[in-house]
Amino acid sequence: MTAPVPPAPELVVVRAGLQDLVVDGCPRHALRVGLVEGGPLDPWALRRGNLLHGNPPAAAGLECVGRGPTLRAERGPIRLTLTGGFSAIADGRVWPAGRPLTLGPGAEVRLDASPPGLRGWLAVAGGLAVPAVFGSRSADRPGGLPGLAGRPLAPGDRLPVGPAPAGPAPACAAPNGSGLLRRCAPTSSAGGSWSAPAPTGPDCGWSARRYCRT
Q1: Would you say 25 and 46 are in contact if contact means Cβ atoms under 8 Å apart?
Q2: Buried b (16+ CB within 10 A) or exposed e, 97-113
């Protein structure tokens, strides 16, 4: 009899920041259906945090602006690192950017900007395991695509944490050559593919007009 698989660790949002978005370093291959690439404003900042944990460089994390969220670890421990102009406050101590922090089960951390910083990036050992669509886990607010349906974090949100990688970093998913990217990489650990009905996306009116079918 196979033993049950224990639930994955999660980060639970206790308090949301001004704008906290799930981002990763994989480009979204969907300009032909009117969706921009997405991703972090500073890809190298997120990449540095991922490399500190041995993650694939493009693993998903958080991008925070101004004031970050308060997060609680469930089924930890969970290892975190901040990069950019942010620091973390846990157990009454300030953890500067670039210094790894381990949260035990039930422990909380508050992320906040460190003057003169405005943006910060949170990398998690194992990456945030939200579903990928069109090869990316990055939030797309106009399109309502992954990273919690494209919206910023809200209190009560639960962010699953993936297992730390044991082998070489996987490449980002690439388009399969179909003109309208009807199929893309698996969207969850259960496998399968996500199918797009080839609409004109919400960004067709500006950045991707020449890539969209009208």
Answers
A1: yes
A2: beeebebeeebebbbbb
Contacts of residue 203, defined as CB under 8 A and 6 or more positions apart, other chains included, come to 34, 35, 36, 142, 143
Residue 158, strand partner residues:
12
- The secondary structure element, H or E, covering residue 103 is strand 101-103
Q: How many CA atoms lie within 13 A of 23 on its CB side?
A: 26
Residue 114 is classified by DSSP as -
Distance CA 143, CA 149 (A): 8
Cα distance between residue 116 and residue 2, in whole Å: 53
CA 55/CA 52 separation, integer angstroms: 8
Take residue 63 and report the two structure tokens written for it: 């991008």
Q: Which helix (H) or strand (E) holds 87?
A: strand 86-90
pLDDT digits (tens, 9 = 90+) for 68-122: 999 999 987 899 999 998 999 998 889 888 888 999 999 999 998 887 778 999 9
**Look-up of token digits 């990069």:** 83
Q: Which two tokens stand for residue 11?
A: 């980060």
- String of DSSP letters for 169-184: PPPPP---S-TT--B-
Torsion region of 66: left, alpha or beta (phi above 0 gives left; psi -120 to 50 gives alpha)? left
- Give residue 138's pLDDT: 84
By three-state DSSP, how is residue 33 classified? helix
